[in-house]
Specification:
By secondary structure, this protein is α+β, with helices and mostly antiparallel strands. Helices cover 51% and strands 14% of the residues. It contains 22 helices and 15 strands. A six-stranded mixed β-sheet has the order 1-2-4-3-5-8, with helices on both faces. A three-stranded antiparallel β-sheet has the order 9-11-10.
Length: 592
């Protein structure tokens, strides 16, 4: 099933059922006693499985000879690792997902880890977030192993445990998080707080313990408090110097906004909102945003022609990879922005639309697919009565809502106006309902009997039309109550008329859209599909220029508020409050 989900064809599979550890793969006839060798080994075994050695395997088993000892029977993690490593070709790559304990546990596991490190088979350690999988909440680690490493090659350690989003109860790696892990692995670059190349000497100094915090210090985003700043006021100079992006882009505006209160301490001369407006509207920032927008437009245009020309499903994934790689290259030419935020924007376009649409285009062609109508199947009912029914037609590619918004704007405006009128009528009726529940007013006398009631004869939040009509018949026409009843009746009638009108207009629009699908011009299809795929892409990518600046402005605001109230000003406020309290106490008069 796993192979099928990863699009491996059945004729490419060789599946053997059994206990992997108890009964190893049959030997390769061409390489007796060596075991079958693979260029790639990918494993996600059960974590820390107990009693794994039910077959009574010995250390003489060729899979465990390299370790010199058997993994403990209480934890089978290294048993699976050694099994996979034994079947790894000399120039192959292995990746295995295991609990963090394999990095630092001692006893026989420590001996095995030492043997692997002495032979320098461990290439990379990747720490992942906790609660990443549905079957366990523990944090896990990916170990990458190779047999052809030089003894002097360092071990790359990546701490990706803090880059995730929360979706429900699960932590989830975004596409940008995965891309950053892969890029760091490929480039083998060190990044403070994220990755480190651990030398053989370091590992020996740590007694072959690979626990990630020994090699990578977590970045503390909290800004330390400055005692003098709290006592005497003023933002410390060293905190100002940490505003690297603003100082690199608009240093003059930042400098002009600061006033020295004493050496090495400053205060803001203007509101942070004013400074934000000046910086974000500065020509230098606007020019960068415009440049990024221009390059993004050229980037989209270059891939647009390739996407709509896809004629083979095999072209899709290479095209996606090229587009994702190119956005990183494009963004890398701009200072201070996070290229992986831009990567995520393009990755989501592929996830949410392009992968699906490209497959449809590949099966026919772009314009034919857009004009192709398919049944719109909707689910109705629930439980045993749940069923799927056709509700008109939709385009294979273009959402009906998009066709309506772009090509039938006037009709949608009319429908929206009518809906707003209904909301106004409902608001008036709700006010009359509330007034009808309050005794001793004309609305209560006129409308209370027309309200819907529950089984305990308590008023509900709407009128009973049948009772309202009867009250109108029984109430003298020249009375105040009749005027109020007639007002409610008119509001309900107007609401009903508008509701019917909206239904008629929505049905007419739906039918018009369905017919329009068949007759869309090439230019209309280009316009609609561009809007669907890339409608806000330029704006989203351009915002990446402002994102780090806004973050630093927020930090500056926090620092200004932190050091605004000094010890002296607090003492003066206390003295003033005490004086006011004394004055109030003297004014108190005791009476009997």
């Amino acid at each position: 099933m796993n192979l099928l989900l990863h699009e491996v064809k059945p004729n490419k599979m060789t599946i053997r059922n059994g206990d992997t550890l108890a009964h190893d793969w049959p030997e390769d006839p061409e390489r007796p006693s060596e075991g079958v060798q693979f260029d790639a080994v990918v494993m996600n075994p059960p974590y820390s499985v107990k009693n794994w050695n039910r077959a009574g395997l010995k250390v003489s088993d060729p899979r465990f000879e390299i370790a010199g000892v058997l993994p403990p029977d209480s934890k089978g993690d290294f048993a699976f690792l050694l099994h996979g490593l034994f079947h790894l070709g000399q120039s192959g790559t292995m990746a295995i997902v295991l609990p963090h304990g394999i990095l630092f546990r001692g006893a026989t596991e420590g001996e095995i880890r030492k043997r692997l490190l002495e032979k320098n088979y461990i290439d990379t350690v990747i720490g992942l977030p906790s609660n990443l999988f549905t079957n366990t909440g523990i944090p896990v680690v990916v170990l990458v192993l190779k047999k052809n490493r030089q003894l002097t090659d360092p071990v790359l350690i990546i701490d990706a445990s803090n880059t995730f989003i929360k979706v429900g109860k699960q932590n989830v790696l975004q596409e940008k998080d995965i891309a950053k892990i892969v890029d760091t692995y490929v480039s083998r670059q060190e990044q403070t707080g994220y990755s480190h190349l651990a030398t053989r000497q370091e590992i020996i100094a740590n007694e072959y313990n690979l626990n990630i915090p020994r090699y990578i210090d977590a970045i503390d985003d909290d800004i330390a408090h400055d005692v003098e700043g709290h006592l005497l006021g003023g933002i410390p100079q060293h905190n100002i110097e940490q505003l690297a992006v603003i100082r690199a882009t608009t240093p003059d505006l930042l400098q002009a906004a600061l006033a020295p209160v004493r050496p090495q301490y400053f205060t803001l001369k203007e509101e942070i909102s004013e400074l934000s407006t000046k910086i974000l509207n500065d020509e230098r920032i606007r020019q960068q945003s415009a440049q990024l927008a221009q390059q993004t437009q050229a980037y989209i245009d270059s891939y647009w022609s390739q996407i709509i020309a896809v004629n083979d499903a095999e072209q899709i994934h290479p095209l996606m990879e090229a587009m994702l790689n190119d956005i990183k290259s494009l963004l890398a030419s701009f200072n201070h922005l996070d290229i992986y935020d831009g990567y995520q924007i393009i990755a989501e376009i592929w996830q949410n639309a392009l992968l699906h649409d490209a497959e449809i285009i590949a099966a026919t062609d772009f314009y034919t697919a857009a004009r192709n109508r398919v049944p719109n199947m909707v689910n109705k009912g629930s439980g045993a009565k749940k069923r799927s029914e056709q509700d008109g037609f939709i385009s294979s590619l273009i959402p009906s809502e998009l066709i309506a918004s772009e090509l039938y704007a006037d009709e949608l405006t009319n429908i929206d106006n009518n809906k707003q009128q209904i909301q106004t009528l409902e608001s008036e009726l709700a006010d009359l309902v509330e007034a009808a529940k309050v005794e001793d007013n004309p609305e209560y006398d006129a409308l209370y009997e027309s309200l819907k009631k529950n089984d305990d004869d308590e008023p509900l939040d709407s009128f009973d039309n049948k009772k309202l009509k009867q009250e109108l018949k029984d109430t003298p026409k020249d009375s105040e109550a009749y005027v109020i009843l007639k007002k409610v009746d008119k509001l309900i009638s107007q609401k009903s008329t508008l509701s019917k009108k909206i239904k008629t207009e929505e049905l007419a629009l739906k039918e018009a859209v369905q017919e329009r699908i068949l007759n869309l011009t090439d230019q209309e299809i280009d316009r609609l599909m561009y809007k669907k795929w890339f409608g806000n892409t330029i704006a989203l990518l351009s915002e990446l220029i402002e994102k780090p600046i806004k973050a630093e402005l927020k930090t500056l605001q926090m620092l200004n508020e932190r050091y605004q109230d000094t010890l002296t000003s607090i003492d003066k406020e206390i003295e003033q409050l005490e004086a006011e309290l004394q004055a109030m106490m003297q004014d108190l008069v005791v009476t009997q």
